[in-house]
């Protein structure tokens, strides 16, 4: 077997049969060992070794990189098929090749019967004090306190405002006294310091600004309030010369606005229709 392997390796190396005399002559008889029989040792047997012809299969060289020219088929898999929840759902009322149309001609058609609704709004029944600058400065100088302005925030159900007081001393407090039942009862709300005013020649601010917030009453349609300034054991009031500041609720009839409707023109559309109807 070793001789056969050597023969095949040499045949690959030289490309032909090995030279004569390189290997032992295989045509000569080979003496095989004697076999033991029941009668004793038998005579040695001679046999002729037949030459073995080897054939090598040649194959084309193989590349380590496989190039695939086959195209894989693409598949579309939806999230709900896999058991996942859809992130966004759109409902289309027209085919994909039809643009959406919004009709303006419906405005010219006879309107449907629309009942106006009542909407409650809070209105300020006094002019903003800071709008008259000279009068506003006079009240600060003479009365030491003056309401500056107010803003009604309907979505928050509150009233925000600012007050300016003369800087008589560092220790001071400002409060808003309000009533929603015609002054049968009242409630005091303390203001918070916002900022100081400009400095005078002595390096002290002339006035200070305070801010406040009042909640609009739920079971009343009127809110009255005034401003109180306390400093050095004295009180100074701004009550609009005895009339007080009033915010009142009023009901306004609001008619719903006219909305456009979508008209389905079918599965086909032409340039003439697009020219008369806006495309969004």
Automatic annotation (TrEMBL):
It comes from the Eukaryota. Residues 137-248 form the CBM21 domain. GO terms for cellular component: protein phosphatase type 1 complex. Pfam families: CBM_21. Transmembrane segments: none annotated. One of its GO terms (biological process) is regulation of glycogen biosynthetic process. GO terms for molecular function: glycogen binding; protein phosphatase 1 binding. InterPro entries: CBM21_dom, CBM21_dom_sf, PP1_regulatory_subunit_3. This is CBM21 domain-containing protein. The lineage of its organism: Eukaryota, Metazoa, Ecdysozoa, Arthropoda, Hexapoda.
């Amino acid at each position: 077997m070793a001789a056969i392997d050597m023969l095949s390796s040499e045949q690959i190396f030289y490309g032909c049969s090995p030279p004569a005399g390189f290997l032992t002559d295989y045509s000569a008889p080979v003496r095989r060992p004697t076999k033991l029989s029941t009668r004793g040792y038998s005579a040695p047997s001679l046999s002729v070794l037949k030459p073995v012809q080897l054939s090598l299969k040649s194959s084309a060289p193989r590349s380590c990189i496989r190039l695939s020219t086959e195209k894989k088929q693409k598949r579309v898999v939806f999230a709900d098929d896999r058991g996942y929840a859809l992130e966004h759902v759109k409902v289309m009322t027209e085919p994909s090749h039809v643009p959406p149309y919004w009709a303006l001609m419906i405005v010219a058609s006879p309107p449907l019967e629309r009942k106006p609704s009542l909407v409650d709004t809070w209105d300020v029944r006094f002019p903003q004090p800071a709008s008259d600058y000279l009068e506003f400065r006079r009240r600060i100088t003479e009365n030491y306190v003056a309401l500056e302005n107010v803003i009604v925030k309907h979505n928050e159900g509150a009233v925000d405002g600012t007050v300016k007081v003369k800087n008589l001393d560092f220790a001071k407090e400002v409060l808003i006294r309000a009533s929603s039942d015609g002054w049968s009862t009242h409630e005091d709300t303390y203001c918070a310091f916002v900022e100081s005013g400009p400095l005078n020649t002595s390096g002290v601010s002339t006035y200070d600004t305070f801010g406040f917030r009042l909640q609009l009453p739920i079971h009343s349609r009127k809110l009255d309030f005034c401003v109180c300034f306390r400093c050095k054991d004295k009180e100074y009031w701004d009550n609009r010369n005895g009339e007080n500041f009033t915010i009142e609720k009023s009901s306004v009839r609001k008619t719903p606005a006219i909305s456009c409707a979508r008209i389905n023109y079918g599965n086909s559309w032409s340039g003439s229709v697009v020219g008369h109807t806006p495309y969004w």
